[in-house]
């Protein structure tokens, strides 16, 4: 009896070892042939996700479909739906503070009272005089607004009724060299639409990026359907992709929405770029998360990113020679009387966009971007270069009796101690209350659930707080931007300022060079 | 609102009386969620905070409190040979349990919270909620007859040296509640081990005193003024009262199933207790650890709300089961031969699993680490329980042991994550050489 049992165990052990050795041999062979075993399953065992994972939708190539199981969708009231309305604001501004990595006082080319066309140079960075920052609309420069230490915060243009554009020469992307294209982009202002990671800064024209990534959808709270503005712009997108392909030594990657209805043909039929589909909850639409699943940023490598709006502007420039910064901005959130989708231009005045639309009930906070990683803005501010959402939310500066124990008003939460988890579709009318006080890290595993990346955020944050550069690098700080940790910050039980800590760490890394 | 403005009016000055202000702040934020709004970073915060997290854990152990209190009374009367049915003498058992439990609870909190408040005032931060859970756990893991001064000293030791010395809530290395217990265990072993400590309310009367009192030497029910107070009340109500000088049943040992098993294996256990008695928890032991169903309900609450880690609970169960099976296979002593599934009927495995091992501060913080951590606690705890000749239970020591090694486990998990990243980056350097040529025309 005992002998039989031992024999059985021995047989099983031999079988398992034979299987695992052959599996390893296959993997080694695959690596030798340069097959990426991370993404293509070369094992003889099926993967867990292959058996139980979400299947790819019909329109997506299964090998380029990523379902991300971590994350959380925050549903808020006041989503902007319906048709786009044309909303030409009276004033527009270019904000030097939108670009990280340039000097706070740029060299002005125009002065108050000058007339400019859309695409005319407004200012440039003294460190990089070739990169021109240009006007989004034509009109008269009415104000150069300065902030603390005389840093220029806004260059404000009073827009003309009839817009005129500066006409650039059209270059042939196929024939032009990389340098010619770079110079052309720097001169025309389109360079300022390219960001660089790590650190999420303005792209450095002296480096050749490993890859270039564009996320074409957003999953953040109240985010509008970005891909809608791509409809009918196939030619521009193709031209922009071809241009970018010349700038990188790797590939151009497009991250498309794989959650439901197929994205517009203008995006799906792009050639010369690797198109990947993502499904899952927020932050599946963040370009940083997508990069991690398509071709992760390695230490000592640099990648560039662009927004879909930036891609459209770039394509139009290459095709027609004009710098067209048309943007669709969602005016959304509970404090707006009528949430709308406005078609306007980069840098439009917030006051013009929201006039007469803000509820007088309570105090309203206006946010450029979403509630997770957007910036608070005053009414006399202007939308930023990448803004496609203006959120309004009520200030929560009220005491609440036993608010922590018996919350009266429903509030968004990832915790299953709140009844909200039983109603996943409920839209919340949230406010800015912190719902608790700051504490030391206590709960573990919470951030990992909010970040679909192979990163340990809490340990990374501790490494940043300790100033341990090597550990920060090892734990993947180079793969992150603030927006990627924003959801974890929302969920944090200890109310830690995750994005602030991460930015400290990124700045520390950047200073180290 | 009236209450709010009243509370705001009585706010003590922070500079003049920092201790009072800390106290005030603690109670004010308990009553009212503060009006602070988000300043940098996110504009919206989750409704969950540390207070709510901690209170959920405390709520999850309330059934253990109710049952533990009553069982303290029940065990007392079983030892006296009275009201052997569980619900017989209900009022007496409940009152005796409360008389034992309330002082333990009060002393734990007065000492523990007092130290917390003092440190908070001294360091100038808000009172942190960590002791809410530790303070609720400590009474449940103490024998019902623990001398209150020993309890006070152990709580002070755990909070000062185990927690505040490391920087307070979230910084401690060892589980605070277990540290209090392990202090008693090593400093005053007679009050927490052996057969006699698990049944409360008896006093030994020596031969000399016995002759003077004209009774046989032995253990007699020891009722104090509180019992007397209730006797008066029960007298008015014309129901059964506490009988002074009730002797303990002849030959009653008060041994727990664990003690029996370590001496005579499963047979010795079943000759005294039935499996359903052990399952429901009508047995002597530490206050909160005896009743398996109520602990499992608490564990269920923690799992359903996602507060405790299911990874730790599951892997700890697997580890303990595997180790028990291995010991079954070895079978050198009667205790090792106890069928592995019956090991879970005895002792405080489930309480340790649900409330002790899952403490997020002292456990490992990576998900992979949690599997290893739980598995090792399960295995080592079961090993200590069965092998240790002096004290037949191992969870306290196993958890504290793994608390010590949790940072090391995390270290290796993080190292492998870091190694994966650096390896991948060196692989890409080779890859980029073959990457497509850039057209430098």
List its traits.
heterodimer; A: 513 residues; alpha/beta; OB fold (Dihydrolipoamide Acetyltransferase, E2P); Rossmann fold; 7-stranded mixed sheet; 6-stranded mixed sheet; 13 helices; 21 strands; B: 441 residues; mainly alpha; two-stranded antiparallel sheet; 17 helices; 3 strands; globular
Summarize the structure.
Chain A is of the alpha/beta class and 513 residues long. Chain A contains 13 helices and 21 strands.
What would you say this structure looks like, in words?
The complex is a heterodimer of chains A (513) and B (441). With 513 residues, chain A is of the alpha/beta class. Chain A is 27% helix and 19% strand. Among the domains of chain A are: 90-165, OB fold (Dihydrolipoamide Acetyltransferase, E2P), CATH 2.40.50; 178-320, Rossmann fold; 434-513, no CATH class. Chain A has helices at residues 2-32, 48-52, 178-188, 234-247, 265-268, 287-294, 308-320, 350-354, 446-449, 457-466, 469-474, 482-491, 498-512; strands spanning 65-68, 84-86, 91-94, 107-108, 115-116, 121-125, 128-134, 139-146, 152-159, 195-197, 201-202, 212-215, 252-257, 274-280, 303-307, 326-333, 340-345, 364-368, 375-377, 389-394, 400-401. Chain A is globular, with a radius of gyration of 25 Å. The mean pLDDT of chain A is 90. Chain B is globular, with a radius of gyration of 26 Å. The longest helix of chain B has 39 residues, at 395-433. In chain B, helix 3 (50-60) runs antiparallel to helix 13 (292-304), helix 5 (90-123) runs parallel beside helix 7 (148-162) and helix 16 (367-387) packs antiparallel against helix 17. The model of chain B is unreliable at 428-441 (pLDDT under 50). Chain B has two domains: 11-32 and 49-195, no CATH class; 255-413, no CATH class. Chains A and B meet through strand 21, helix 12 and helix 13 of A and strand 1, helix 3 and helix 17 of B. Strand 21 of chain A pairs antiparallel with strand 1 (32-33) of chain B.
């Amino acid at each position: 009896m005992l002998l039989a049992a031992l024999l059985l165990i021995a047989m099983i052990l031999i079988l398992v070892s034979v299987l695992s050795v052959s599996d390893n041999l296959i993997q080694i062979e695959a690596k030798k042939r340069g097959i990426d075993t991370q993404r293509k399953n070369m094992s003889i065992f099926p993967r867990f996700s292959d058996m139980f994972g979400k299947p790819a939708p019909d329109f997506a190539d299964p090998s380029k479909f990523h379902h991300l199981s971590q994350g959380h969708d925050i549903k808020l009231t006041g989503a902007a739906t319906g048709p786009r309305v044309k909303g030409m604001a009276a004033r527009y501004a270019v904000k030097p503070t939108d670009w990280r990595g340039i000097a706070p006082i740029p060299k002005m080319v125009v002065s108050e009272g000058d007339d400019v066309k859309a695409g005319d140079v407004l200012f440039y960075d003294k460190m990089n005089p070739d990169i021109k920052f240009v006007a989004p609309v034509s009109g008269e420069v009415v104000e150069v607004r300065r902030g603390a230490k005389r840093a220029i915060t806004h260059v404000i243009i009073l827009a003309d009724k009839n817009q005129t554009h500066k006409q650039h020469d059209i270059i042939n992307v196929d024939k032009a060299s990389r340098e010619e294209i770079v110079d052309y982009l720097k001169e025309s202002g389109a360079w300022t639409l390219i960001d660089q990671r790590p650190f999420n800064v303005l792209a450095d024209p002296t480096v050749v990026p490993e890859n270039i990534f564009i996320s074409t959808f957003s999953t953040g709270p109240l985010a509008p359907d970005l891909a809608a503005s791509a409809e009918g712009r196939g030619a521009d997108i193709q031209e922009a992709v071809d241009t970018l392909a010349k700038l990188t030594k790797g590939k151009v990657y497009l991250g498309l929405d794989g959650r439901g209805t197929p994205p517009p043909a203008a995006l799906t039929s792009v050639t010369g770029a690797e198109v990947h589909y993502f499904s899952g909850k927020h932050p599946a639409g963040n370009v940083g998360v997508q990069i991690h699943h398509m071709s992760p940023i390695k230490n000592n490598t640099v990648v560039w990113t662009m927004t879909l709006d930036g891609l459209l502007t770039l394509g139009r420039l290459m095709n027609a020679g004009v710098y067209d910064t048309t943007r669709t901005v969602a005016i959304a959130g509970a404090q707006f009387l009528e949430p709308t989708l406005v078609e306007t231009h980069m840098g439009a005045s917030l006051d013009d966009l929201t006039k007469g639309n803000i509820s007088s009930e309570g105090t309203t906070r206006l946010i450029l971007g979403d509630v997770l990683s957007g910036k608070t803005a005053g009414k006399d501010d202007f939308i930023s270069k990448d803004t496609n959402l203006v959120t309004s939310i009520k200030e929560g500066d009220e005491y609440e009796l036993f608010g922590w124990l018996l919350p009266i008003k429903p509030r968004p939460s990832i915790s299953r101690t709140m009844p909200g988890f039983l109603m996943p579709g409920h839209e919340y009318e949230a406010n800015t209350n912190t719902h608790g006080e700051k504490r030391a890290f206590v709960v573990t595993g919470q951030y990992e659930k909010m970040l679909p990346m192979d990163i340990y955020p809490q340990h990374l944050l501790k490494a940043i707080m300790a100033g341990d550069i090597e550990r920060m690098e090892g734990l993947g700080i180079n793969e992150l931007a603030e927006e990627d940790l924003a959801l974890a910050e929302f969920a944090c039980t200890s109310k830690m300022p995750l994005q602030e800590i991460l930015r400290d760490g990124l700045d520390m890394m950047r200073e180290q060079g | 609102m009236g209450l709010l403005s009243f509370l705001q009016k009585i706010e003590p000055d922070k500079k003049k009386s920092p201790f009072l202000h800390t106290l005030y702040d603690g109670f004010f934020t308990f009553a009212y969620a503060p009006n602070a709004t988000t300043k940098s970073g996110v504009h919206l915060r989750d409704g969950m905070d540390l207070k709510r997290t901690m209170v959920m854990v405390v709520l999850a152990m309330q059934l253990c409190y109710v049952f533990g209190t009553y069982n303290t009374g029940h065990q007392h009367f079983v030892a006296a040979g009275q009201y052997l049915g569980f619900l017989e003498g209900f009022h007496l058992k409940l009152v005796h349990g409360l008389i034992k439990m309330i002082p333990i609870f009060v002393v734990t909190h007065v000492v523990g919270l007092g130290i917390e408040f003092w440190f908070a005032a001294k360091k100038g931060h808000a009172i942190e909620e960590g002791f809410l859970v530790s303070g609720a756990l400590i009474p449940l893991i103490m024998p019902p007859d623990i001398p209150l001064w020993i309890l006070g000293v152990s709580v002070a030791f755990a909070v000062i040296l185990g927690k505040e010395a490391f920087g307070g809530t979230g910084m401690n290395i060892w589980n605070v509640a277990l540290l209090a217990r392990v202090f008693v265990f090593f400093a005053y072993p007679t009050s927490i081990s052996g057969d006699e400590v698990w049944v409360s309310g008896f006093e030994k009367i020596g031969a000399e005193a016995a002759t003077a009192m004209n009774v046989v030497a032995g253990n007699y029910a020891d009722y104090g003024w509180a019992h007397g107070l209730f006797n008066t009340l029960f007298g008015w109500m014309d129901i059964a009262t506490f009988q002074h000088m009730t002797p303990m049943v002849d030959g009653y040992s008060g041994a727990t199933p664990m003690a029996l098993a370590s001496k005579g294996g499963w047979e010795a256990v079943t000759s005294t207790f039935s499996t359903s008695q052990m399952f429901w928890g009508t047995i002597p032991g530490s206050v909160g650890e005896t009743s398996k169903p109520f602990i499992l309900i608490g564990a269920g609450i923690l799992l359903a709300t996602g507060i405790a880690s299911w990874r730790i609970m599951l892997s700890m169960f697997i580890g303990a089961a595997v180790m028990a099976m291995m010991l079954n296979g070895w079978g050198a002593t009667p205790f090792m031969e106890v069928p592995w599934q019956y090991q879970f009927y005895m002792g405080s495995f489930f309480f340790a699993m649900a409330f002790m091992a899952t403490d997020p501060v002292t456990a490992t913080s990576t998900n992979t680490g949690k599997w290893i951590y739980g598995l090792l606690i399960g295995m080592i705890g079961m090993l200590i329980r069965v092998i240790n000749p002096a004290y037949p239970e191992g969870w306290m020591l196993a958890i504290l042991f793994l608390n010590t090694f949790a940072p090391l486990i995390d270290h290796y998990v993080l190292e492998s994550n870091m190694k994966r990243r650096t390896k991948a980056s060196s692989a890409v350097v080779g890859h980029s050489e073959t990457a497509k040529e850039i057209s430098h025309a």
